[in-house]
Amino acid sequence: MTDEPDLDFSLIEEEEDSRLRAVLIRQARTEGVRVAYDTALAICRDPSAPAQARASAIRSLLEVGDLLNAKGREAAPTKDPAAMSADEISAEIVRARAQLAASKAPRSRTNVKNNGAFD
Known about the structure:
Layout (H helix, E strand, L loop, with lengths): L8 H37 L5 H14 L5 H4 L12 H19 L15
Helix pairs in contact: 1-2
């Protein structure tokens, strides 16, 4: 008889499952996204693709580009403030203040936008 503890093989299997799941998620988020993007573009460019497939691909691309909501379309440029000139910083301050004022302004029911791609 030995003093070694019994191995719990269920823990080993769970750890392997966890690692495999992490690898698959990483592949889906890298390679899978590239394939999905290329496929959606191909469908959009194919004049013989069914209208429903093209509409779905277009919507997917607009969603990825965050263009289906007003916040995505009005998003500030991602330029680092350290790389901006004084004029660019001033313009960003003006834009941010206007955006803040607009978000605080009361909205009437007749003036509410749908926040769609064509608003």
